């Protein structure tokens, strides 16, 4: 089984922590699923953290430092700030897997809006008070499916 | 409770069927949830059909025609072809609800890719062999959450 | 004193309600400040409503209908749905007044982020659970200043 | 509490002073609020200065040099010129916190214009003769709010 | 001598006043120079007014109405509001004359900035507290030159 | 008084001569006005030369070499070719001072065209057979104004 | 042999004269070569005039009016002003023939610049003091070639 | 007379051969016209080769190697592959000389198409089976003109 | 089985012939495969002709006129000119089927270039001297495959 | 015969494996056709692998390592992860060979869609469950043609 890796020359604008963490992951040859258990977070969140898109708590830094044998001070210095999100994916994406996720939004965007408006009123689903989870499913015909769950707080527009 | 409507002047490039169907919906004052029961499809699929983003089967056309009292020939002429998808959402979207869905892809795009690659190998989640469903959740603290489920077939890249 | 008006040929993609309301406003020769008192909302919210960027409550529709002498059914049909936001301002804006607001975000964007992160943690200021208010100030030297207040709920990123 | 930091690999086009100042800030482990007291300026202005978006006075340079123990000549050479603004935020922004500020302008741009025109006449709010301030508010229900104040000189279009 | 005219099919998003005024100008066969004398404003300002880029005073409306024999109420309704600037020139411009003006900014932008910063400090030349004037020059060799004068108030960045 | 400087990390695509010249200028602590006297050219032209937007004559190279004590061969190698214009300003510009110059073209572009066409016929003002000059003005009320003069040869479209 | 025609629905932003002239051309079934003889101009210039990209002289209007039997007043009203160039070709062009012309500039742009700079000095080839001509060539092997000649005045950059 | 040179910091994405060749050219102080004689190709082709936009034959490599005293193996390694065209000119071009060439295509694109269609039928002028040549002309009034000849094979669209 | 149709409101910039032909096709309820037999051309070519992307010969016009019962003069007037290609697909495409074709070029573009260069030398595959054909394949496992064949003339770059 | 090579300065964002593999290929002086035989894959797939657009199996890595004499550990580290597709071709492409492939999609996109919809129903041709093959053809007149075959699984839109 192959592991997700990072080629820094393809992502020159990711934070230094991304290079550090992916190098450690490659050396230890572990999956995000395994790391997620160590950190106690969802694997998508852990991958996002590796790509500089999620905040590491002091506990996360400690766990990752110990697990990978990275000097704590180094990791703290690289991961201790606030994520500067939005620098991982070029937009619009040319990566086929990411494109299809975007295409779902392109095709069903107004359908989601119509359904959510009728069900919840005038507002949005938060992408901040938000979590997501991925599951693998093999149906009875042996076909493999991806299930992605998005769960976001409903935020009604304030009337003012 | 308000209903989702369509203002044609805001969407000059939607198909004629969109105008026809939304006008009928506004007149009958029904939600997509109610229409979905009549058509026997998920409400997101029905809303997508109204926005010209999903194919109507002959049965769908018959059901919609009868339910809304739209002449069958008219609806068949407008809905009988193949959807010309991608004309509903301007891109990048400025609509706040749709933007946040896109932002989830922007922020978690590579995290999803890494997780899916490690779980499934080299491939993509199909946006075609795909379904989606929306659910409302009120948690024990009375907070309202949106749950969106995306389910797509896993397509491995062909080795050639 | 001049009044804010709408020239539909300059804004072909605004909802029909915008044309209806601005025409009524021009005929009655009233400012947004005056309308705001009738509707009982902030004048920025009322102007946003006129531009199709805010939701009208049933009460708003009733008040506007009576105040302007617009048939209630017409206004309800045009304003009863959910706003399809994002169709008023072309982006990036060429309008000088709007550009300068955008420029403030361009120049101070990361400064705001740094300050807010240090004061509140990892999160965002909501643009949905949000209100805004404009005030005129003439200082002791007779210089006129604009004060714009933005008040948004702080939303911390969910840890997952 | 985490501190705002700068990862130079994410911001290759900021001035050298940004790297110098953020490195010193990280080493001394101080917030912008603390630095602002030393410099005697608003914390947003100080953060903007760190991001190369505001001018440092000779006094600022002296204060920062002493406070952080950076050689005065170095800081003067890096901060002594005029800011070359606009190189901090990619545009349109993908950073969620910054995006929402932009979204406020997108959604309320014409509403602000209409209100300001009716209150002040034909002109703009200056983004140059301008100051801004951020405040934290916890309301009686314990909900946290961000308050951003924008104060700009009103500039009427010259009639010629 | 040819006159500047407006072909509405080329400029569908100009205000209605543009069509009205240019039609009247074409019928009366007058230059902007002549109109400028009637209105008592610079001819560039008058042309800008015709393109919907400058505010008309009540006096301007009265003068234009009388001069062109346009019904006062019509012109007041079309010109009485505030200009919604930025809808005349597509950007970047493909029109050769306008492109060259933009090219001057592209080529000399930082040179102007450097000179103005050294002469005036940290600030900008206002495009609002601004006037401009065009003059024709034929030099001693019979060569024809255009002279454009830009005069804008210097606005220093506020220190805060 | 501050001096205009160049931070190479903000302008990675300027020619090497820009780095050389700005470093020398910073070291000698001179304004463009002073350099202009040495070179015998307008200060805007000199600044443009520093930004790689104007051609240096052999005499210019000699003068600059002597004045700044830069080895003649080095400067000749860096400045002896032809300018590769257009690499200084990102477009559209986010720098506020440069943006306002562009905004003048956006707002008054067609007004200039109309006036120039009526005064000169069908053609353009050259940006090549062109010079520009900046002057500071303090009016009788003590208000500071920038005056920018643009002088370009009129080029009529060839009839063929 | 087919004739070049104009389908207005494909070019909604061309001037009215384009519709008028192309309709007359289609009715009279004549080529641009034939029209060029009547007007006494190069056929490329005449086609450019039909597309609203070249100025018609009073004589041109008279000739075209007589030749096509279009009322003189109509044609004068539509063609009497100054061309508003740049509205015929969307940019970048998707039309294959036009794309290839653009590609020549993309591929050989810097080669032309280098050659012209060495042959003529620092300047440009004017696109205004400019003419162009097309010729058909069949070589000795029976292969058909297009020859396009571009002739533009050399404009040296003014030293100032 | 100045020579065309290359500043690598302005063109970071040109092939290594460009740096090698331009450095040799600068050292030997020769024009493209002189090099063209050595290589036996048109000077535009040679300049294109220097910019990585044309293929070098083994003979070209040998000639250039000998003429400039560049080690043959080095040049062969750098020039022996196939050009990866399109990386020299940013698009749209801001360089004034290149812009004007593009502007000719913008202004006369459809005129060329109409003329070529009527003269040759449905097809395009090839930019591949293509050559170009530049000539200097001084007319009887002493005015200097550039003549650029484009010669491309006519390719009719295949009927299928 | 559904038929491909055209909704003009989704494609406002197609030629009039597209509306005429698709309306006739919808009324006669025929597939492109059937029409292709009548016209004697490949079905892709016929569909391209319906979308205004291929030239109709006089024979095609006659055949289509007779087959669909469209007045010959009407069809000749609409189809007799030269296609103005490139107005059918917005770019980049949001239509999922068309996007995937583009994605193949994005992913395999340089692979094709490398293979073609090594097999054929320096040149391109013509998109003009070009034909294409689509075939349906059901493999032994009952899986359905699309086969698209692209056949283009190899055009070597001219050495000059 | 020339070989396809990679100039890293032209492709700074390709993965490290691209530099490694292309350097080895240049040194060994082999074509993709020869490498393809060693790897046992189609030559387009091999070229795609070199450009970081296809996954290498452990067997591929072993074969390439042995064939080129690259240390296995190095190649495994560089090629062992999942391709991060979409970083090879800038978009839209300026490379002429790649552009023409894109142009085929631009011109025939809706024609393909119409034909595929009528032949297969509502769905897409997969670019993932996909293979492609290139063949050289010399016809009886000695003309050289490229044949590109695209074979993708048909994916019907799921009805939900």
Automatic annotation (TrEMBL), chains A, B, C, D, E, F, G, H, I, J:
Molecular function terms from GO: cyanate hydratase activity; DNA binding
Enzyme Commission numbers on file: 4.2.1.104
PANTHER family: CYANATE HYDRATASE (PTHR34186)
Top-rank taxon: Eukaryota
Role: Catalyzes the reaction of cyanate with bicarbonate to produce ammonia and carbon dioxide.
Reaction(s) catalysed (UniProt annotation): cyanate + hydrogencarbonate + 3 H(+) = NH4(+) + 2 CO2
Annotated keywords: Lyase
Protein name: Cyanate hydratase
Root EC class: lyase
Active-site residue list: 100, 103, 126
Keyword Cytoplasm recorded: no
Residue ranges constituting the Cyanate lyase C-terminal domain according to the UniProt record: 87-160
One Pfam family matching this protein: Cyanate_lyase
Membership in a protein family: Belongs to the cyanase family.
């Amino acid at each position: 089984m192959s592991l997700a890796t990072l080629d820094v020359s393809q992502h020159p604008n990711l934070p230094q922590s991304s290079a550090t963490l992916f190098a450690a992951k490659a050396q230890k040859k572990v999956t995000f699923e395994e790391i997620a258990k160590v950190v106690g977070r969802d694997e998508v969140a852990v991958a996002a953290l590796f790509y500089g898109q999620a905040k590491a708590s002091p506990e996360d830094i400690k766990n990752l430092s110990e697990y990978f044998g990275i000097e704590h001070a180094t990791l703290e210095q690289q991961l201790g700030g606030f994520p500067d999100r939005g620098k991982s994916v070029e937009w619009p994406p040319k990566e086929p897997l990411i494109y299809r996720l975007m295409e779902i939004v392109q095709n069903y965007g107004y359908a989601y809006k119509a359904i959510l408006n009728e069900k919840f009123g005038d507002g949005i689903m938060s992408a901040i008070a938000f979590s997501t989870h991925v599951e693998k499913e093999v149906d009875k015909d042996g076909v493999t499916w991806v299930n992605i769950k998005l769960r976001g707080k409903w935020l009604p527009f304030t009337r003012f």
